[in-house]
Amino acid sequence: MSLLVDNIGELSTCVGEPLSDAAVAIDGYEIAWVGPSGDAPSCDERVDAGGRAVIPGFVDSHSHLVFTGDRSAEFAARMAGRPYTAGGIRTTVAAVRGADDETLRANVRKHRAEMLRQGTTTVEIKSGYGLTVDDEARALRIASEFTSETTYLGGHIVPPEADADEYTALVAGDMLMSCLPYARWADVFCDRGAFDVEQAREILTAARDAGLGLRVHGNQLQHGPGVRLAVELGAASVDHCTFLSDADVEALADGDTVATLLPGVEFSTRSPFPDAKRLLDAGVTVALASDCNPGSCYSSSMPLMIAFAVRDMGMTVEQALWAATAGGARALRRDDLGVVAVGKRADLVILDAPSFVHLAYRPGVPLVHSVVHDGKIVDMALTRRLTFVRAASVARMGSKVWRYVSKPHQRPQVAAGKDSVDAVLDRVRLRSPRGVDSVGRRLRLHDQVRLDPGPGLRGPDRAVGRAAH
């Protein structure tokens, strides 16, 4: 099936200058043609953008969606300058450990749907709120139902019941092995109150030896070794980068590690924003991400991150858009995402605005008119519910199967077992997308990548020296 999106007033491809009166032709799941509307090829279906701006789908390369519970009282106290001693991240750890699978799954589903409505077509999801072998593996198993970009973050903090060195050995050993089947990446928080550089190195080296790509939380709370450790070990991304020395910036500029900035954290914790202009002027590759989590940034809005970056971090709107799309793809080492170009994945966002500049010009306004994801239209007026169904294993293929499907009037059901998988396979055609993760090639049930009609849309804890994720 082919699809033409034409009558685009301004097309931001993130690989060159914006195009006027443009069109994008899609064949299946990839972009097949980009150019002037008047020269567009014929396609099976057509979407008239109505002169609106079109951008690539946002790539959110840092999130913590596997959680439950509420920490709004902590946020209110922080904003009022009052002390709050109810536990911070440990509150979320306790809530996650006590929750059943469906509670966690429903929360991820809700936030993933929220992200899609705001134009985020690709998201990375971390574990890190279980901090036991079983709970971390469970978090990643649930996360893998929603994205192939899953990150093992057993090295988030040391749980209160554990010795730091013993817990580090667990994260680098048995916990890693249990989480390996569900993870593409491994991450560690190398900062004050979390893991020191040698502990972080032990965890990251073990993960790299096991075949996982590396990511690092670093230099959020103070100047420290996190950035240089990330560059030394060849991590794809080092995230936060709030406090940087000249040596840190030089290391990033000389290496391949992306500096992923998370301005929602600085907003939500009333902390200094990272200096994006300093990094860009030095030639560092910069990404923007939400860091959506219940403690230090409970926002899933990439447009809001763009507005923060432009207002408070010295980025131009063009730079911020690139960082939230192509930059995020670089942080995930994906060359099929984040740009509008032939051969790339067909993820587009149609804005209810004449220019992408409105993303920063009109902060807080819901400007996403509609979304094209994997070459399929997601009609934003049809449903608020996004349900992912995944079979834990398909023995005859050694693969995972997952799909998007809307069940607006029913409680979502998760397929499990060979009979359920076979029933699904009998109804749809399979196609393998780009990319292979550590478990195997994911097969998407693309014939079901749509949203069926349903109800319409209405419409660090720095004082104590700990991160507040």
UniProtKB/TrEMBL annotation:
Enzyme nomenclature, EC number: 3.5.2.7
Annotated residues for binding of Zn(2+): H62, H64, H217, D291
Keywords carried by this UniProt record: Cytoplasm, Histidine metabolism, Hydrolase, Iron, Metal-binding, Zinc
Residues that bind N-formimidoyl-L-glutamate: Y129, N293, G295
Pathway: Amino-acid degradation; L-histidine degradation into L-glutamate; N-formimidoyl-L-glutamate from L-histidine: step 3/3
InterPro entries in the cross-refs: Amidohydro-rel, HutI, Metal-dep_hydrolase_composite, Metal_Hydrolase
Cofactor: Zn(2+); Fe(3+)
Pfam (any one): Amidohydro_1
Compartments where found: Cytoplasm
GO cellular component terms, A-Z: cytoplasm
Signal sequence range: none
Residues covered by the Amidohydrolase-related domain: 54-356
A biological-process GO annotation: L-histidine catabolic process to glutamate and formamide
Entry binding sites for 4-imidazolone-5-propanoate: R71, Y129, H156, Q220, S296
Top-rank EC class of the record's enzyme: hydrolase
Basic and acidic residues: bias regions: 459-469
Database matches in HAMAP family: HutI
NCBIfam families, per the entry: hutI
Protein family according to the UniProt entry: Belongs to the metallo-dependent hydrolases superfamily. HutI family.
Protein name: Imidazolonepropionase
Gene from which this protein is expressed: hutI
